[in-house]
Amino acid sequence: MSRLHDMGARFGDGPVVPDFGQEPVFKEDWHGRALAVTLAAGSLGQWNLDVSRHARECLSPVDYGSFSYYEKWISALADLLANQGVLTSQDMIDAVATPHPLAHRAMRSENVAAVLAAGGPTDRKVTSKPKFQIGETVCTKRAENRFVSGGHTRLPQYAERSFGTIVAHRGAHVLPDSNAHGLGEAPEHLYSVALLAKDLFEHPEHPEDEVILDLWESYLKGADDVKA
Amino acid sequence: MSQSNSKKLGELMPHDHHDHDHAHAVLPSEPALRVKAIETVLTRKGLIDPAALDEIIDTYQNKVGPQNGALVVAKAWHDDTFRAALLADPMGVIAELGFYGRQGEHVDVVENTPDTHNMVVCTLCSCYPWPLLGIPPSWYKSDAYRARSVREPRAVLAEFGVTLPETTKVRVWDSTAEMRYLVLPMRPKGTEGMTVQDLAKLVTRDSMIGTGFPKDPA
After folding, report:
1. What is the pLDDT of residues A42-53, one digit of tens each?
2. Residue B6 has pLDDT above 50, yes or no
3. Most buried among A24, A99, A171, B164, by the most CB within 10 A?
4. Active site residue: B2, B127, B149, B175, which one?
5. CB neighbourhood size of B95 (10 A)
């Protein structure tokens, strides 16, 4: 049903180790290189943010569990380059210096500031009206991609099939479940939904605490649509 | 060579129905060497410009970081009109200060009060407001923080030395979409009359994630 990345609320992890702002931005030189190579390769335009997130999630459970953060990035980047047809595995082994048809798209140093400053907004104009209103009770659906078995979704399993309250409407945003699989942006209204800790967990730390998630309209049902 | 590449470009269809192949297995397993191998092949094919990589690293190492968020917070503490505008239209005000960009395209500012303490996590990956806070620290990306913050935020906060009264509700924002959250911490006592620059020095990175408090004035 789920993958290892969907770890919210799981048991068994040890303490969090704060750095109180003392840790360098990149603890190792290769961390910075891994981030930079990934961003630069992304600007070739052969995948979107949702495709790249899904590539990291598709690392095997053994790899996902044992790789450090930037190892996940760099390994998923290799997988993306192969799966999106940019390089073959053999290309990666041989590393032959031959021009690539996408070379004209390579991010140049003089463009870096502009590319990073431009970002990639995901809000889109839609003609449909939001189905849910602020203050309305909703219920989350099952945390699974409805287009692709094992596909990308942004509803965590700990928050599936739970009641919550709409606290904000964020406009319409690209739907990751579709966009991660080449099925188009399919923008939908996005809401911030408050779920009470006591509704989510058998043993909440404090009954009044809450978790707020940003959820797309198709992740939600109206309270009236939920069978008693 | 270019012919076979053209053919591959014609087949640029994502693989939707199966888990992806794991090409990374052909690369060296030592992570620094793995990065080097990918950087080398991409550079040799003309797909990346090594000078662009240096520029990206320099941006996040030296230019973009929590000092940006701290300025936003300090200005909000210093000026009620700014604070009201920030809470009403966070993105407009933040963009005006020049802190728009990658991983900060849609930002909301959530204000701590005596009744509500806000704390931010991304349980599914490590989403973080880069233009305001820079690259996230290791603990923010750790399994422990991602797993535990939604279920036992108070236990996690205690590991940061933060204890909240029972009367304060904890509101954990799990950034599951492209919304990014900046916590506006409560202004410390004894800071009346301080300048924006001096106030900004009290704003810690963790206080803007919700895992810490601002520093007290000296």
Report:
1. 999 999 999 999
2. no
3. B164
4. B127
5. 16
